[in-house]
Amino acid sequence: MTTIAVTGHLNLTDATVALVREALRERLAPYAGELTGVSCIAKGADSLFADLVLELGGRLVVVVPSRDYRENTVRPEHAATFDRIVGAAAEVVVLEHESAGRAAYEDANRVLLSRAERLVAVWNGEPPTGKGGGTADTVVEARAAGVPVDVVWPAGAARG
Length: 160
Prior knowledge:
6 strands, YspA, DUF1273 family protein, 19% strand, Rossmann fold, six-stranded parallel β-sheet
């Protein structure tokens, strides 16, 4: 089994969702049946990745950044997807943080990287914003730790 984690942008345009889904499918297809995916299943790239891991017969590990994440962070339009993916996961890791926030997101990303052999980053290549816990921050951390990073940002992709 190969363990691949994901980081990626939340706010993808509708057209970008289709582009990213296809690019992720191409990236993950060689691992079909031999894949463990690790994701925080946030809206956007994380959930697309998680769905594809399951579709390809992989084992999914969900990392939830805080105890209140579902109730206070998951938006109503993403709640059904979040709940469906959690229900299908082989393992759900809920971090000890009471509340979602920078520290919880940074710790969740560290858990992702500690379990990963590779990181797939659905990332437009922009540098970190300085807020911490974002896609670019995770890419920087992965590279510093020697975790190979595969960037997925198809031509025509855009953030909403």
